[in-house]
Amino acid sequence: MTPEIRPSAIAGVNPVAKLAVALVISCALMLSIDWVSAAVALALEAVLLAWCGLSARQFWLRTAPVWIAVPFAVLTTVLYGQDSGAVLFSAGFVSVTEGSVALALAIGLRILAIGIPGIVLLATTDPTDLGDGLAQVLRLPARFVLGALAGLRLVGMFIDDWQSLALARRARGVGDGGGLRGRARRFGGLAFALLVLSVRRGSKLATAMEARGFGSDEPRTWARESVFGVRDTLVVLIGAAIAAAAISAAVLAGTWRFVLA
């Protein structure tokens, strides 16, 4: 069972405001690949994590994919990134220079600065509230919103399905081989079984929703009102301030390089 999120200041914010914050920060950090802007944004985001409502265990578990991806991205860029500056190490077709190290640092910090707030904001958002916000605040088509909401609801079931499939296969004695090859075969079998189960469930859900009139083009009413208020505007302004502070710090430090320049 997924642990509950503690009530927090950010949990009650309109999901549209959270989405806007994530987009603003992401777009600002994508304008340049330098370590200063990413470091400043990450530091400011870290200060605000105290109000996200996630426990330490929940935070590390939910952001684990980002922390796992960062070392691989950094190492790949250090070894095979664009060479510039003094050569620090060279062996065959692999070379490490001051420029590739700086680029790797900038990319690693950028992945953290973009990925962590996105995951945290998503973790503190109720899917139904997100659907209400997309339909009532952004005025997106109801059919698209309801389909996305249904799919988002099913994402949380993947872990339970994976565990159930693993227990069922173990009870039947399937995929119990040891070693790396056995684990790879077991992972592949579970992944394929989960794919088949997801397709079947999605087909049944689509048929059920169509039968209940969710695919109709008639105007739809919503049970809960989604309001974009002063607090939501303040959250968006905070996100814009973080983006502006990151860009300003990079410009003042002389590291800002527009990606299209």
UniProtKB/TrEMBL annotation:
It is a multi-pass membrane protein. InterPro entries: ABC/ECF_trnsptr_transmembrane (IPR003339), ECF_transporter_component (IPR051611). The keyword rRNA-binding does not apply. One of its GO terms (cellular component) is plasma membrane. It is found in: Membrane. Pfam families: CbiQ (PF02361). The keyword RNA-binding does not apply. Keywords: Cell membrane, Membrane, Transmembrane, Transmembrane helix. The chain crosses the membrane at residues 20-52, 59-81, 101-123, 234-259. Signal peptide: none annotated. Its main location: membrane. PANTHER family: SLL0384 PROTEIN. This is ABC transporter. It comes from Cryobacterium zongtaii.
